[in-house]
Amino acid sequence: MAGILEQIKGANDIKAVSPSKYDELAQELREFIIHSVSETGGHLASNLGVVELTMALHLCLDLPKDKIIWDVGHQSYTHKILTGRKDEFAGLRSFGGMSGFPKHRESQCDAFDTGHSSTSISAALGYVRAREIKGEDYTVVAVIGDGSMTGGMAYEALNNAARLNSNLIIILNDNKMSISENVGGMSKYLNRIRTNESYVELKSDVETALRKIPGIGDSVAKGVKKSKDSLKQLLIPGGFFEDLGIEYMGPVDGHNMTQLLRVIKTAKKEKRAVLVHVITQKGRGYKPAEVNPSEFHGVGKFDIESGHISKSPNMTYTEAFSKAMLYIGTKDERVVAVSAAMPSGTGLVKFSKRFPKRFFDVGIAEEHAVTFSGGLAAAGLKPYVAIYSSFFQRAYDQIIHDVCIPDLPVVFCIDRAGIVGADGETHQGILDLSFFSSIPGMTVFAPKNKFELYDIMKFSLDFEHPLAIRYPRGDAYEGEQHHRAPIVYGKSELLYEGEQVALVAVGSMVETAIEVKDQLAEAGLHATVVNARFVKPLDTDMLDDLCEKHNMIVTLEENVLRGGFGEAVSDYYMTKGSPVCVRHVGIPDVYVEHGNVARLKQSIGMDAWAISSKILSEVLI
After folding, report:
1. Does the global pTM surpass 0.85?
2. Half-sphere exposure (CA, 13 Å, Cβ side) for 483?
3. Is 346 in contact with 339 (CB distance < 8 Å)?
4. Would you tell me how many other CB atoms lie within 10 Å of the CB of residue 407?
């Protein structure tokens, strides 16, 4: 017999499901998500935690008329299923398939494209103000995790939401986690609310008793609201949200459909911003994810029965960085490490355990992480700030003002640089070479393999200026081990000397350049290969030498072409008046969608075959 889930073909179909079947539907949803993600990879624990919450929202709202803004969006799988996209999960996060994040182009039920944290309240507030201006009538809900509440942008939005005189519902999905366990004052504050059952129980008992009084119960219950609010201030320290002017409701069991439906319906009636505090369990319904939610946050393919996650046996760049951090941390007591809520993702867990007093997780607060590190450096320490490339974008102003202008020795460790694959546009690290290189006083380095990453980390210890080191996601390249020239500031590395064509590659593209060299050799063209190493400053001596000996210079970088390494090379030759032909391989002026990294590179002409074919079409052999 077909399950309940088979009855849901599109938005609002869930409303035809009998309340007696809600638990069964929740179980079917979890089973479907676990099975799907085990085959495709994706965000598992976060999605398992919000099944009932998503069901309750869909039961109380009319989609797509009403709007749900998912913070980050990595918990939107149930939402996608309930809006008719169940059959698309076979292609989840694959090239041409369904995104793992909300995308308006996929469905009108995805009200806002998301991918980074702490943005939902701002976007939802924009919808509310637009609703007011246009005189429309629909409900707007922002769903934000307690992890995202460590980000400053959320508080900027709350500050503005407090002035509303119309309804905005903010669902605080509190599971004590972001990717790793939450840190900071807000986490402690929410924990006090979770554990303070006195107010919750008293509030429930008093309201229940009052409403039982014949004839006058409801009016009496409403009349004691001011007393109730005063009592809340006594029993829940701070009353943070209500002090801001935002109605607080909760905490509510995020897996109890009765409670969820009641509180959402109540929240819809308010004529101001309402924050509904919902307690959920990350990974609920799948024991391995319940026990280790961080491991099953963003996960590759895995075996459902054993919980074993498929992983490459090779060392990743993140693991190589982790190893290097332990080494320099042991060698120099000035070394401190800073993470923005991702000690696991950036490889700093081992450092944090070895040197707990020298490790700082500041929460999802990249701007703070950078300026905080500037303070550490100004006070005589050597901070290493490890953040994903696409997340570093959020701290551009702080990098300029608080590190580079005062010329402080902060090392920016740019993980996930280049095309990262399945997470898509919001996570591709394709801009960092451009924006880091544009900053005066910044040095930018990209290692060709894991050994060069070790070497630049050692080099960085005695480098007393801002330094950015960028490295990609995935397995660390181990080729070209025999080429390991000492790192000299601003100098590139000649790997292979040929004629006519010189390939000057940045970081991860060195491996591709070697493949191109081999393919060109089969056609009778023996190309020179240079490992650029330093993107800024340029090795102008090497560029001058290449210009004298070659007819064509080809730059290769896993970054947008605009403002990247290739443009800097062209600018140098043009300023000097050199006649050499320069061609650039990089990412065009587009946002790269989700999919397998190799397939994505092929789609934009960055694979070895496409590059060598283009070179051969222009060079007369």
Report:
1. yes
2. 20
3. yes
4. 14
